[in-house]
Write a structure and sequence with these properties.
This protein is an alpha/beta fold and 374 residues long. It is 41% helix and 11% strand. An eight-stranded parallel sheet has the order 7-6-5-4-3-2-1-8. Helix 5 (151-164) links the parallel strand 4 and strand 5. The protein starts with a helix and ends in a 17-residue tail after the last helix.
Length: 374
């Protein structure tokens, strides 16, 4: 959806006022342990899984990344999702990542979430159960995704996972590259499950996301903090899943601060370059996609490789190379990426000490004071 279509969708869905975000947990009492619906709010970061040159898990880099994200005021951190290369992780890797996440967040006011995906119910349940035993708050889970499930099969799977892992919150990963629809009717039917929190809407269908806010008793957070960020806040979104926070945390912070002050016009101005750069370097620009001339060869590398090279080029977090089947972006090209950023978008590069400039206890997502009718 382009910006014009997005604004049209906002006008259509928000004409009668702010979206009806239901009180969290209204349909069912929360679990004894784990994430509850009323806490699935704010900015949830989706950082990459850092690997060393030999492709082993870089535990030192992972801890450093987590501490920076906690310091800048995220409400939650999600590891081992798509950005976290879940499809390359062994069970031992997955458990170790979950353990480190628990250690770095358990004494702080940050929700800990790890991915739980697989081709069979047993694989999904196994990873969710491991996360539950470690003590994490929630899992970002996907139904077995090779085949599209019928509604009856889909409901049966989520009931099975909920019963098998009762002491951890469950966030449904609604990813548009996997052919599985999740209309409001499905979420209303699943809302009786006490530990099913809501969803991460990993797609670009704004109308579908807006409909869920009105018609589902659960909490639905978009994974898009690009062109939608300001308008979603204005409409009363519960929060946002942020990948760009790994690149430009100071810009995300500035935009949301302006939103909290009700200065949406200035917030939109700050969003322009943020969105433009993300589009140019991740997916190219023009028709067909044309990458910047300074980055000849950039398109030869996959999305994960490019995303991790960007994280390292921006310098706030550490990403390292992708694991196979991804092929790392060469060091020479990574230098060209950094040079491109310094020459074209220097204001988007985060200050080296940005995390240390914020007061302790800062939170990125401001308390909602404004609505679409303000």
């Amino acid at each position: 959806m382009n910006r014009r279509d997005f604004v049209a969708a906002v006008g259509a869905s928000g004409a009668s006022g702010a979206l009806d975000l239901r009180s969290a947990g209204a349909a069912a009492e929360g679990p004894r342990k784990g994430l509850r619906r009323e806490r699935y709010r704010g900015v949830f970061a989706y950082p990459p899984t850092p690997f060393a040159a030999d492709l082993s898990l870089d535990e030192e880099a992972l801890r450093s990344n987590l501490r920076k994200l906690v310091r800048i005021g995220v409400d939650g951190i999600v590891l081992a999702g798509s950005t976290g290369e879940f499809y390359t992780l062994s069970d031992a890797d997955h458990r170790r990542i979950a353990q480190i996440l628990h250690e770095e967040t358990r004494s702080r006011d940050v929700v800990s979430v790890v991915g739980a995906q697989g081709l069979t119910p047993g694989e999904v349940i196994g990873r969710a159960r491991a996360a539950m035993e470690i003590g994490l708050d929630a899992v970002l889970a996907m139904q077995p995704f090779y085949l599209t499930l019928t509604r009856k099969e889909l409901v049966a799977f989520w009931k099975q996972l909920s019963a098998a892992c009762p002491d951890i919150g469950i966030i449904i990963y609604h990813y548009d590259w996997v052919r599985q629809e999740y209309p409001p009717e499905i979420f209303r039917e699943l809302s009786v499950l006490p530990n099913l929190v809501g969803s991460k809407e990993g797609h670009y269908d704004f109308t579908a996301w807006a409909r869920l806010q009105k018609e589902s008793p659960m909490v639905h957070m978009s994974a898009t903090d690009g062109g939608w960020l300001v308008e979603m806040y204005r409409m009363g979104a519960p929060g946002v899943g942020s990948v760009n926070l790994s690149l430009m945390p100071h810009i995300v912070h500035r935009i949301l601060k302006l939103c909290g002050e009700g200065n949406f016009t200035e917030a939109e101005k700050n969003l322009v370059l943020f969105t433009e750069l993300s589009g140019h370097l991740k997916s190219g620009s023009g028709r067909p996609f044309l990458y910047p001339s300074e980055l000849k060869g950039w398109s030869e590398y996959g999305g994960t490789a490019r995303s991790k090279a960007l994280v390292d080029a921006f310098g706030f977090l550490k990403a390292g190379p992708p694991r196979p089947p991804g092929i790392p972006v060469p060091a020479e090209m990574q230098k060209r990426v950094r040079g491109y950023l310094e020459s074209r978008y220097p204001e988007l590069l985060p200050p080296p000490d940005f995390a240390d400039t914020l007061p302790p206890g800062s939170k990125l997502w401001p308390a909602a004071k404004f609505s679409s009718t303000s």
